[in-house]
Amino acid sequence: MSAVRRIIVGVSGSPGSLQALRHAADLARQYHAALVPIHAWTPPGGDLADRSHPSPYLRQFWTDAAWQRLWNALDLAFGGVLDDVTVQPEVLRGETGRVLVNAANQPDDILVIGAGRRGPLAHAVACRVSRYCLAHAKCLVLAVPPPALAQVSHGLRGWAFRHRGVSPDGIGLPTG
Question: Is the pTM of this model over 0.85?
Answer without folding.
Answer: no
